[in-house]
């Protein structure tokens, strides 16, 4: 967990300072959803420009990973109305695994430098932040 990243991210949202814990959970989920959309867009842009077959394949698979990531985070957001925090936590953790899966694709032979390492790292931080808040709500 990156404390400075969490603090900076939460300080950017005007609602954070007046939010109760449930609202904070929603704010962190929405931030994670926004990052997943950015990552999916960036992966698609890189895919469209890439010509090396292996990178094309890895980026295509990452696009699928982020499609799944986005769906899981949106599912967690929908569950927020029911306050089913345990299921929300599972979905957020699965979303984090998908972004990690994307990053790890570039580490398997033939190894390539991931063009989206920074984006994948931010996704992990966003999902970590959401998980921490949701865990607090689940207790």
TrEMBL record:
Top-rank lineage group of the source organism: Eukaryota
Entries under InterPro entries matching the protein: Invertase/methylesterase_inhib, PCW_Enzyme_Inhibitor, Pectinesterase_inhib_dom, PMEI_plant
Write down what this protein is called.
Pectinesterase inhibitor domain-containing protein
Which family does the record claim for this protein?
Belongs to the PMEI family.
GO MF annotations in UniProt: pectinesterase inhibitor activity
Spell out the NCBIfam families in the cross-references. PME_inhib
| Keywords (A to Z) from UniProt | Disulfide bond, Signal
Span of domain Pectinesterase inhibitor: 2-136
